[in-house]
Here is the input.
Amino acid sequence: MTFRVSHIALAGALAFASSPLAAQDTEQLQEELAEMRAMMAQMAERMTALEAELAQTEAQAAAANAKADAAQVAAASAGSDSGKSPAIAFKGAPEIKGEGGWSFKPRGRLQYDAGFVNAPDSTGREDGFGSEARRARLGVSGDIPGGFGYKFEVDFAGNDVSVTDALISYDAGGAEISVGQFNTFQSLEELTSSLHTSFIERAAFTDAFGFERRVGAAVEFGGENVLVQAGVFTDNMEDLSNKNWSADGRVVFMPKLGDGQLHLGGSVHYTDLETGSTVRYRQRPLVHFTSERFVNTGQLGASSEFGFGVEGAFISGPFHAAAEGFWQNVSLPTAIDNPTFFGGYAEVGYFLTKGDTRGYKGGKFDRTKPANPVGEGGMGSLQVNLRYDRLDLSDAGIVGGTQDGIFASLVWKPTDYTMLLANYGRLDYEDAVFPTASGSRDYGVDTFAVRAQIDF
Here is the structure.
């Protein structure tokens, strides 16, 4: 049955194809196919044109990108600050500089001290081993467009939080104006950063006479060889508010002598004290981690202080020498005579490593940068120093005692921002405030200390 149906269908189809109606449909189909071929040809031509336009656009975009990349590279190599990305340099820590004169740099230091104090047993004073985090500071500094600058630091040592520097400055061309809390202008030793001193502590008179940062306003005029500094101050932030005020001035002559650096300076200081104020002059035996003071005037009722100092230094290659003297006169309303106390030091130092010298900048000692630091095939810098230090707190009936110290230090700086220091001191006292069992107030105290330091 299936065979017969298939043959009948095939015969019907052949009969239809041979009919006039089938011929007409074939002609119409061929015309439609021709139209479709024409349309496809047009579409192919359009696609070819679009591909050419796309290739041209891609070439133009690639050229524009290459031009932009080249401009960015050229701007970076020329140090241009017109780009959107800030420039970053490394100076112990990242220093970021942006458009228009903005800059920002985190800063900090950590100093850890440990050592021994040996005093006569019969004085009953606490001695032996001691240690402390001497300084643990964090802060920021930088520039603001228009010639302004800023600096802010906080110290966390001793489980206390205290503000050290907090100032805004303005560069007025030949002068720099500063407002805030910062060091007053007393002494080369005091103005030299604790990062760059040659001994574990500064000269005895700087602490004994109360040199510290104060809130005020100051102006500095600097030339090639001359520096003039002057300011008016109140008191340290921690002691405000009171009616104390002071005025300070300092002049430095700092010419180059061949390859050497000469430093000659002088300073004056006056403080007007609030009615009913007292002052006390005292000092530790070289190191800070002991609370003992063997020279001490006790509390003195005072209305004002007047001090003046002289300072000198010379640097030549690996050698340096420095000396200072400072006289502190205090006005005592109830006394017949006003005492004048004295402090001073003289030191010499020498680098044992080739090519190293003590840093100096802006009227004070600055960072020593080892010529051959660790990490670059060298051992860093190695320096030895000797110092004689004197503090006299006895005058006009006030017997605070005298302290004469002979100090030696060995300073190793592996890199610009790291330091290890060893310090020995022998201190001889006359009229010390603590007598021995026999009643003697004249005796000696030995100290030894080491410091590990890092800053950024």
About this structure: The longest helix spans residues 20-77.
